[in-house]
Amino acid sequence: MAYRPTIGLEVHAELKTNTKMFCSSRNDPDETRPNTNVCPVCLAHPGTLPVVNHEAVWHVLRIGTAVGGRLADFSEFDRKSYFYPDIPKGYQISQYEHPLVSGGELAGVALTRIHLEEDTASSIHDVEGTRVDFNRAGIPLMELVTEPVIHDSGTAGRFARELQLLLRTLEAGDANLEKGEMRLEANISVSAREGELGTKVEVKNINSFRSVERAIDHEIQRQIELIENGKSVTQETRGWDEGRQATFHQRFKEGSADYRYFPEPDLPKLRISDIETFSEKKLLASLPELPWERRARYQVSYALKESDANYLITTTDRINFFDAVARALGEDAELTALAANYIVSDLGGIFAKKGTEDIANLPPAHFAKLIRLVASGTLSSRGAKDTLAVLVENGGDPEKIAQERGLIQIQDTGTLQKVISDVIREEEKAVAEYRGGKEAAMQYLIGKAMQKSHGAGNPGMIREMLAEALT
């Protein structure tokens, strides 16, 4: 029997603001000293009153504008009651009936709403018990909810990645999943009947894009197996165990009635149109080039592969570096495409080994010069890789580095002819194979010639001279 999965996502993302959502305590997710960024408001001392963070509201309205959502004219905050050690008030200030944004679409997925609330404190569990760090309590938290229109894990993963890109592009949040700055939850059901939804199960504790895809696939299969064995799917909240690659029961799912929502009496209602900085015109004018616009421009202007374009637009530093290199190359499509290839493969490889993307020693103009040296045939691909490694580590002029290290390609036919004669003499088997019609042997011989020239031979000239010598 065929089953149709239906998936909706809930995404929480911490917003980048100077202060917390309802008080003047510093918003610093990198603070390691426990209970440092706290005050009577975020510790819920009696008699304290919250004040709405203007910057946080602005971030959410810009996100809503970017995804084509409907911005509320009237909005309000609500109390969401539940009792955990990490919620000092015994309730969370959130939004229920009147979110800041309704509707919209991202990565082909329809959105239900985007609203604003405050984050909880952090519970630290160890052998001595549980301790609570209130540095995170009250940090502005955006919650985005999709419509249940996703039917496979791949679409869910693409959506989450695109949302992270959007948050970073708008500088609304860093959205690092490994640091808990962006958290994914999936509501999953399966049904054998078209147009009918099964029993929904919420899966939490997902801290990577790959994990959300695996968790969805696992939960779909778990629910199908239950149904196939004549059992019922229970509406519940489950966690994701990365080690076991399986979901596990956490608690039975609460409904909205359990939270006893009611309007927050200590905060004023928001009339968005009364606040000049929240006007649609100003919000639109504040938007930079959005990820999908930039991706399309890179693909059209420079004929980049989608995967390369995605790599380049992942961080602001990569975007700024690539755009500066493109300008230094005069926006030449071929040269810029070559530059993109070296950034993604070679520079990206260096970043992966170093564990950091520090390019303080590599001005875009110097990288552009390296690309021109490759394009002109002055540097081979091997020589460019070696030169790039030195540039990233120590800086300097790429042409001078290449000359000092003997990496400038040999263009002199006399010098190359000696190399080729030595290769033909030493590689009798490969020569015989090539003359016998095995074209792959030519590539082997070129590689040997490149080795003998210490990577400085011009591979195009070597190929031509080998072919001529072996005919």
TrEMBL record:
Residues 320-470 form the Asn/Gln amidotransferase domain. Belongs to the GatB/GatE family. GatB subfamily. Heterotrimer of A, B and C subunits. It comes from the Bacteria. Keywords: ATP-binding, Ligase, Nucleotide-binding, Protein biosynthesis, Transferase. InterPro entries: Asn/Gln-tRNA_amidoTrfase_suB/E, Asn/Gln-tRNA_Trfase_suB/E_cat, Asn/Gln_amidotransferase, Asn/Gln_tRNA_amidoTrase-B-like, GatB, GatB_C_1, GatB_Yqey_C_2, Gln-tRNA_amidoTrfase_suB_CS. It catalyses: L-glutamyl-tRNA(Gln) + L-glutamine + ATP + H2O = L-glutaminyl-tRNA(Gln) + L-glutamate + ADP + phosphate + H(+); L-aspartyl-tRNA(Asn) + L-glutamine + ATP + H2O = L-asparaginyl-tRNA(Asn) + L-glutamate + ADP + phosphate + 2 H(+). One of its GO terms (molecular function) is asparaginyl-tRNA synthase (glutamine-hydrolyzing) activity. GO terms for biological process: glutaminyl-tRNAGln biosynthesis via transamidation; translation. Allows the formation of correctly charged Asn-tRNA(Asn) or Gln-tRNA(Gln) through the transamidation of misacylated Asp-tRNA(Asn) or Glu-tRNA(Gln) in organisms which lack either or both of asparaginyl-tRNA or glutaminyl-tRNA synthetases. The reaction takes place in the presence of glutamine and ATP through an activated phospho-Asp-tRNA(Asn) or phospho-Glu-tRNA(Gln). Its EC number is 6.3.5.-. SMART domains: GatB_Yqey (SM00845). The gene is gatB. This is Aspartyl/glutamyl-tRNA(Asn/Gln) amidotransferase subunit B.
